[in-house]
Each structure stands twice: as C-alpha cells, then as structure tokens.
Write a structure and sequence with these properties.
By secondary structure, the chain is of the alpha/beta class. It has nine helices and eight strands. It has helices at about 60-65, 70-75, 90-100, 120-125, 140-145, 150-165, 180-195, 210-215, 230-245, and strands at about 10-20, 25-30, 55, 80, 105-110, 130-135, 170-175, 200-205. Strands 3-1-2-4-5-6-7-8 form an eight-stranded mixed β-sheet. A hairpin with a 6-residue loop joins strand 1 (about 10-20) and strand 2. The longest helix has 13 residues, at about 90-100.
C-alpha cells in the first residue's frame, strides 16, 4: 500500500504586510478565518467565521510568504499568524510556523489564549513570540467583552508560555465604559506582571474603523456610540501598567 500524505489545509481570510504593528520589524501577517469569541469591539467581524475565508494549503501560503522572504529578513521582520483565532486551526498554524522557522524567519502568534490548550509543544517550539490579547482582567468583564470567552484559559496559557521561555507581548484594548475601570486594568496588569516572559504591554485605544464592515455584513456595531479614549484616560491606564513594573507601548 502506498502512503499518501494529505496536504494540511486551513481557512485563510487574507494577508498583509505591516511594520511595527504585529511583532518586530516588517512582517507578513496572515489572517486566518474563524474565532470562538464575539468581542464587542472587534474591528474585523468578517474574520469571525471560517466560511468567510478560502481553503488554503500550507504549500500555497508558504509560496506567498517566500515571495517576501528576502525583504522580511532585510527588514528584521518575519511572519505573524493572526485572525480570527489561529489556534482554532492548530494543525495548519503549526505547520506554517514550523516551515517559516525552517526558512529562518522570525515567527509570531497573535492569539487570545482561549484555545491555548490546542497549541501542542511542536507548535510552540516553532513560535518565537506570542502576541497575547488579554481582553479584561475581571472574569465577569471578560465575559461581557467577549460574549463567549473565559479568562482562566488565557492566564493558564500565559504561564505555560513562560515555563517554556516564550516571549510575550500583552495586548489590551482600552474601551471607555467597557474595559477602562481601574480595578479591571489593575487586574490585567497583575496578570501580566506575574508572567516573567512578558516583555511589554501594548495599550490599544478603541476605534470605530470597523463600523463599515459591520454594515457590509448587515450586522449592528455594538459600540457605534462609544468614543475613543481621550488622552487623560490613556495616560491613566498606561500609568497603571507602569506602576506594576511593566514596559508600556
């Protein structure tokens, strides 16, 4: 009997080239389709559903990445898998990251950590950096923000990464009236400060740039009337993280 290797296929929404946003340097960012969370502030609702992606093999995606390989290396960048939620497609994510590592490209995984248990050791061996989205530090607020999520798996995943020595950049979206409560911010800061491989915290101000995507999908934008945070609020929240000894961007 002849062994037939079935190509690993995932659902790819899109890809882009970014600088200084999704990891160090200039990066090839692949957005995978499908996410278990329904965050009120999500600016890409079209990535929440796998049906909005296109079936793509690892070979097809790597062929696209290789077009930029030399440029990414010169620009001290690499490849980031984002979404959606890449850990909803762990086999595809693992194989893409593994082959990128073989190309000597820096690899980053952008995840909420909710599905961190799906990331096996081989996947984490191929990951140089995790961009960990901590939605909120209070479990009740986390549930309100995400609709379907739980905080505990994210915290568990963060400590597993630390035990393996994987660098982490924590991301926190600051939404007035939703995630800005001082106790909630302090809770996120305490979680981050307790994980020794957290290198920085990125405080991301809420914006309404995704409103048109909701309209195109025929969906209401839950935070249509919520303003972006002002400078005073942004300063206060950044200071709270700094007071926990964290580097803030």
């Amino acid at each position: 009997m002849t062994d037939v290797t079935v190509p690993v296929t995932g659902s790819l929404h899109s890809f882009d080239i970014s600088t200084g946003v999704d990891g160090p340097g200039t990066r090839f960012v692949a957005f995978l389709a499908g996410c278990p969370l329904r965050c009120l502030y999500c600016h890409s609702p079209d990535t929440q559903y796998r049906r909005f992606g296109r079936p793509t093999s690892v070979h097809e995606l790597l062929t696209e990445i290789r077009r930029y390989e030399r440029f990414l290396k010169v620009a001290h960048g690499g490849v980031t898998l984002s979404g959606g939620e890449p850990l909803q497609q762990p086999a595809f994510t693992r194989e893409v990251l593994r082959q990128c590592k073989e190309m000597r490209l820096h690899t980053a995984l952008d995840t909420s950590g909710l599905l961190g248990d799906r990331a096996d050791d081989a996947l984490l061996d191929a990951t140089d950096l995790v961009l960990l989205d901590i939605k909120s530090g209070d479990p009740a607020t986390y549930r309100t923000v995400t609709g379907t999520g739980r905080l505990a798996p994210t915290v568990r995943f963060a400590h597993r990464l630390a035990d393996r020595g994987v660098p982490i950049w924590v991301r926190f979206v600051l939404v007035p009236g939703l995630t800005d409560d001082p106790c909630n911010v302090d809770a996120v800061a305490s979680i981050a400060a307790d994980v020794p491989t957290v290198e920085r915290v990125e405080v991301l101000p809420f914006h309404r740039l995704g409103a048109q995507k909701y309209a195109a999908l025929g969906l209401p934008f839950p935070l249509a009337d919520t303003p972006p945070p002002d400078e005073a609020l942004l300063h206060r929240v950044c200071r709270q993280f700094q007071d926990h000894g964290l580097t803030v961007y």
